[in-house]
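Why does this matter for the project? Reviewers at the last site visit asked to see concrete outputs rather than summary tables. In response, this paragraph embeds two records directly. Each consists of the residue sequence and, immediately after it, the corresponding structure tokens. Nothing has been edited or filtered.
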Amino acid sequence: MAVGDLFDDYPAAANWDEMFEPGGDPRPGYRALHEAVVALSSGDLEERYAVRDRSLRDQGITFSFSGEERTWPLDLIPRIISAEEWGVIEAGVVQRVRALEAFLADVYGAGQIMADGVVPHRLVVTAEGFLRQAAFLNPPNGVRVHVAGIDVVRGGDGRFVVLEDNLRVPSGISYVVENRRTMARVFPEVFATHRVRPVADYPTHLLGALRAAAPRGAGDPTVVVLTPGVYNAAYFEHAFLARQMGVELVEGRDLVCRDNVIYMRTTGGEHRVDVVYRRIDDEFLDPIAFRSDSLLGCPGILNAARAGNVSLANAVGNGVADDKAMYPFVAAMISYYLGEQPILDTVPTYRLDVPDEAEVALSRVDSLVWKPVAASGGKGLVIGPHADDRTLDDLVRTVVADPRDWIAQEVVALSTSPTHTGQRLCPRHIDLRPFAVNDGERVWVAPGGLTRVALREGSLVVNSSAGGGSKDTWVLAGAGHAPEPRGERDTAHPQLRALKGLAQETGPASGMVQQQQQQQQ
């Protein structure tokens, strides 16, 4: 049986389908992929999935789900975005990051946007992510958002809209790179029919941004990746990025602060650190400034940053800008700081701390999406049309008791994409998280990003922590853009490989780092 027979059973999309037009014909960008997949037999497809499983398992590409380490769920039918569509997404993400960067500098500085009444002062200072410890803590090159993950979805009308912003410790880029490498092994012939823009140079851009953020006078700065440890759900990504950038992966116990300077403990003695790409939440970063019971961070690191002796990426306090209650104001921020109209639209959102909006939203409790403003990873999310009466009753009581902690949004009919469900190809809802890197001179967006897919039929929850999967995202190369090279290659830039080789020859590598490297082998 050919896979095409499975496509014959593919239901007509109720909303926008990425591969198929309403009449059932493949969209122009998908025609070559559709022909390649239809030509496969069911046995061929099963063998491809077996190759995928072996490849992911052998490389240790995993994530943590409900406390269990699982192989990364990659669907083999890629998501394709045309060069023209990507141009819109890319420009919209860059614009949004620039505006949010300006907002963070403002609220931790002069606070002019609040004085001018564009964003309510009370909304800012009551945000869980607003940290008074970050006030007037000015980064050396002015960058607070070194890495951003902007979640984008396509609605039923085919337009892209922003669902939310992630400016604290956004994760997922390692899976973007590994998805591509796995697809190149499993479907090499499909790449031959497409000009796909590469994603493997992300570590080069990230390292460049981190080095550009170093304190003045640092010379050849030392960069480290700070991880909570092997039990963190995103540990694979922490180790991956450190390895690809050729820098050390450290835990809090590998660092020490002395005279407001950060040092890394190594087998050859202490070595000064200039930039910390931290993958630890604010509250656990510094037990002196934040949670005193935290063993994950480094005592005194915030004072060292304030003294200008170390740079933190991303900056502390960024959570005030991606607080979901701030989401309805981003369009106004773009106008206020940049003097521009938003390129990407946003989802109609109700502010529940405004009585009139709360009244309207609560009267439609079963038709809206309800989100806790400070949560991430889909935690606490209630989708009104899919919730039972008891859940909705509990929700109403919770919202009425503390309306500042919630927003309500119109339901977005997320686009669908063909997804392998074990027996056939079925439409499943997807989103997209493009990753932006800011070096102070330019905001660069990796072509594509992480497409997440809700594996359960009808589900709108795409988060891997809630059982979602992923797809490789192919941005087709337009004029002036080079496509993905054929075959496999080392994803590290040659300069990064040289730096990594030098580090291996001369150190530094702490006992903890050596132990972690042995665990990875």
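We now turn to the second protein, recorded in exactly the same manner.
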Amino acid sequence: MAWGWCLRRRTFADVAWLAFALIPVARSADPPEVSIRSAAWKPPAPTISAQSNLVESGVTVSDARGNAIGGFKAGDFILTDNGKLQAITFFSELHRSSTSTAEPVQPRNVALFFDDVHLTAAGLPIYRQAAEKLIRAGLPPGERMGIFTDSGTVTVDFTTDTAALLAALPQIKSHRDPGERGMTVCPTLTTYSAFVIKEGIDEGEKRRAVYELMGCDHLTWDEAVGQVMDMANNVWENSRHYATNALDVLKIVVGHLEKQEGTRVLVMVSGGYPDDDRMKPQIAAILDAATRARVVINSLAVESQMGFRQLVVTNTMTDAASSTGGRVIKNTNDLDGALSTLAGTAEVSYLVGFQPGEPDGKYHTLKVALPNRAGLTIDARPGYFATRPTPTVQQRIDRAVLSRDVIRDVAASVRVTPLRNTVKVTVDIDPKHLKFAKQGELHLQQLTLVSVIEDAQGNFIAGKQAVVDLRVKPAKLASMQSTGLHIVESFSLPKGVYTLREVVRELVQDRIGASNTAIELR
């Protein structure tokens, strides 16, 4: 079986459903505008599983100087869920791996995650320099380091090769959200100002925008308020995908870390970004995965943003550190020391867990306290979503394949051409009906296609899955919209009657299309 349309073939990876797959070397050139990864598809094996509803949180206890304090027991802590006292059913005190030569070295994996979409071009060289000093100092025995970026343009998988790590650093460039330079003229609204106006967080920023608009268009106060709110909503909707994409890639890095043996540390270097209520489930899912995989997330908030603005844009970074037993450092002048500190692990931290009640689909506030322990600071997970586990993208695709329902949410049609002992399948997709995400001049989309052949009795015969990554420039997009996108594959089959089940999933709006086509080979 072979896929066509002149697409460069790649190995199908575990993270194939995201546009930026992890690869073990830095990208020295721009990726192709259209590429394909493919593999055989087989029906998922039936499984019997028990779903644990344990809610876990990393906890660090620090004294006034910021030193981690150990020696506490489960009974020393009080944990509440929405103000209700909970019994701690899981407790562990975690210590940094011993450096004694008498003990075997514990494998250790450090992921440096540069949020190059929310870092400025002016600041990036400073952060790259701090990372260079960290790498040149040498990796301790048993440690591997990887470099990952929000944009996906630079990736180095976990390695002990410091030369490969150093070579990747100069390739990290700023892919800044254009909304941070202002999306509108009068009033001037940036992504941040639109967010705080829309969410009702900063009345001062709202008044500034209203007065500016009144001066431009001679509107009344009420008229200007209505227009400013509409503009703020539109600006935020046009820019929020920069934050959600960062979370998507962060989730992949956490999942990749989970597969590594030993200690797992993720250092997030970011200028921070706003997050609204719709992003909370996405953030909670990442924190759940990181906590259960024992991934410690340390955050370095490095842009010169002070006071109230910094509180707004670094919420996610602070929550990630608190939830996983990690640390967050903000606005330090000692970047070298900060990065070195965060690349390590706390001397001691704790992991606590409890069994919640039935999921109610709501956000629950958590609080961990140490009664009668004045002068100590406790960092822990601020809350969680009490929801039942949602299926993964692959599980949703598999369920659509195994179903017989016809779904028309994606503009795709199927043509079957019977040949001698071969069936040619052409999937025609109309790009004019696809929504593309924007990254600079590039239009981004990803299509996952599954073709399955069954015999007349409904028995599985053969299957194929492919992921088509589209990172196209305007000229290529216009050409595709004119001619259509045609994906071709073929199956070698004996004479007989068959059914083709075709499923197409697009990433940007997360829609699925499915169809059934009868085949007869004579």
